[in-house]
């Protein structure tokens, strides 16, 4: 929504990825000899025909949380394909024992290098992040933020970049 679409139907430039994956040394290391391209429509059709298209997986999240597996859902605030507000709303309606706690948890500022780059809501192992100035491909639009988010989530330190709350007496 914030940038003109200049790279075909997907609007993102995957040229560097294609150049890397199609390089002879990389293909040799991977043991492949095929030309890689992003979003190959013939491969996509095979996924669709196999039933792997628009499958509702959100019903599996309560079981993950019940098993103690932490879950992070994130969306760019400029994504019109999977908008952040719709994603936040379904996370709030998810049927799990800590739904009420999650729903009253604050949306706190998530910071990187002293700048607020996202809003984070988290409770009982379930987190939702709204990433600012990012579209459908958060890692391509905000690579530093995406890397920090991923690192924090996988190391169990997602709250380490949340702004401290000031409590007035």
UniProtKB/TrEMBL annotation:
- Extract the Pfam families matched here: Peptidase_S10
Protein name, per record: Carboxypeptidase
The source organism is Prorocentrum cordatum
State the family named in the UniProt similarity comment for this chain.
Answer: Belongs to the peptidase S10 family.
State the UniProt keywords alphabetically. Answer: Carboxypeptidase, Glycoprotein, Hydrolase, Protease
Entries under InterPro entries matching the protein: AB_hydrolase_fold (IPR029058), Peptidase_S10 (IPR001563)
């Amino acid at each position: 929504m914030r940038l003109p679409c200049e790279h075909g139907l997907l609007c993102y430039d995957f040229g560097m990825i294609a150049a890397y994956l199609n390089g002879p040394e990389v293909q040799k290391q991977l043991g492949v000899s095929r030309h890689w391209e992003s979003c190959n429509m013939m491969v996509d059709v095979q996924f669709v025909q196999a039933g792997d298209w628009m499958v509702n997986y959100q019903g599996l999240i309560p079981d993950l949380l019940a098993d103690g597996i932490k879950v992070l859902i994130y969306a760019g605030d400029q994504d019109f394909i999977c908008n952040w507000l719709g994603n936040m709303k379904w996370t709030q309606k998810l049927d799990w024992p800590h739904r009420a706690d999650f729903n009253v948890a604050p949306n706190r500022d998530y910071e990187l290098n002293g700048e607020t780059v996202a809003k984070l809501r988290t409770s009982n192992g379930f987190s939702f992040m709204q990433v600012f100035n990012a579209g459908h491909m958060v890692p391509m639009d905000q690579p530093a933020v995406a890397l920090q988010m991923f690192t924090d989530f996988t190391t169990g330190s997602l709250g380490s970049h949340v702004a401290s709350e000031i409590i007035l007496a």
